[in-house]
């Protein structure tokens, strides 16, 4: 039997049904499950009314976001590239330096290779290279991040809250600089310390770190009712105070006394010049972050610093061999394996929510309660 051609009405009906089905799948459950632009926009986009230089742009309100990392740590580059993509900003990489490749003639004044680790020396050189890159390129401002960082999926919202507080604190700074383009963080800052592991306020400094009373700045601005704050029992790094003395869900923006760990910090153009002069040319006889803290605590070169606690950028400890956590503190290759990764102080961890974010699902809290 010879079959005839299907009728025109049947063809049109089939096409119409297919279009309806595709429309349903494209806008309904399937898209929600695997990730839609609308869902992803919650973490990456900004209202159209926001300016190009604000914290919601592709460089978090800075000219650049630099990450310092050894080229061989491709695992860390993979992670941060995906994390920044899913939270809506772009990274520029600064190659880290292996300390034993630095010749003796290039050692900073005061460095003793017999007592100091080459890994600390390499860390110092990597950060100095980032500062020099800023000065050489005439970069107005840059956020400098280490390559093992994590941050909240709401990082842009957090930075917007911080920016308002930072601008207010600058009313007490000497004002001799205008950033171009204008910065959402204010016009009169040298360094914004956004990631540290221990915080000590000016008024709580131990005797050996104290500065003259007239130089101290105990001012603090509180960000209340922050829904991205973990509960006090999940907050670490408050070296000089108890969170019991502050309302729940409160972050503190302050002029740093003594911070430890250089997880993430931003420099303005003038800040990069001041830091390069002191950190690069005056000498180095202890770990980089200790000298960075001196730069702010002692107001060296007139340095104007603002910080926040709990920090917005924190060291992530991934699942896998614990010896792979740090390229400075090298552990035994036979150390135990961590089965579950974690990040201190970050409630909606970007690193721990990557699987949810790539599928367009809502992020989950690292802790409940």
Automatic annotation (TrEMBL):
Keyword Plastid in record: no
Coiled-coil stretches, from where to where? none
Top-level taxon of origin: Eukaryota
Q: Which GO terms describe its molecular function?
A: transferase activity
The UniProt entry, under CDD domains, shows:
Glyco_transf_25
Supply the alphabetized keyword list: Glycosyltransferase, Signal, Transferase
Give start-end of the signal peptide. Answer: 1-30
For the keyword Flavoprotein, the answer is no
Query: Which protein family is named in the record?
Result: Belongs to the glycosyltransferase 25 family.
Under what name is this protein listed?
Answer: Glycosyltransferase family 25 protein
> Whose protein is this, by species?
Daldinia eschscholtzii
